[in-house]
Amino acid sequence: MTTKLTTTLTTTTTLTTTSTATTTLTTTSTTTTLTTISTTTTS
Question: What is the pTM of this model?
């Protein structure tokens, strides 16, 4: 009996900072995707 389990974890973090003489804008975007596929079972 064989079971195949595939797990993929992808994390993307984007940090954007824009600075002027009087304004600082910081934007942080984090995206996490977890995909689990268990499709192969043979015996």
Answer: 0.32
